[in-house]
Write a structure and sequence with these properties.
By secondary structure, this protein is an all-alpha fold. It contains 3 helices and no strands. Helix 1 packs parallel to helix 3 and helix 2 runs antiparallel to helix 3.
Length: 85
């Protein structure tokens, strides 16, 4: 079963919501920076690792969205040239 972040990213990609993905990425990056800057008696390695995994999922979603956008923008001319044949 996909994780919550995977489902959210999939939804953003399906809806072509680049802004939502960018905001999600910025939020996770801020969390990571904040946790990495903390010191004290707590071990933040587990939440930092989880956030890093989520950032990787978001990056993959951004790549998928970029690939779909480039397919769509170049796909239109290919479809037209095939119809002309």
């Amino acid at each position: 079963m996909p994780s919550a972040i995977e489902q959210i990213v999939d939804s953003y990609v399906r809806l072509k919501n680049r802004r939502g993905l960018d905001e999600l990425m910025m939020h996770r990056q801020r969390l990571a920076v904040d946790l990495k800057s903390r010191s004290g008696g707590y071990d933040f390695s587990l939440p930092i690792g989880k956030i890093d995994e989520e950032i990787a999922v978001i990056e993959a979603g951004l790549s998928r969205l970029k690939a779909e956008n480039s397919k769509t923008s170049s796909g239109g001319s290919e479809a037209n040239s095939r119809q002309d044949s």
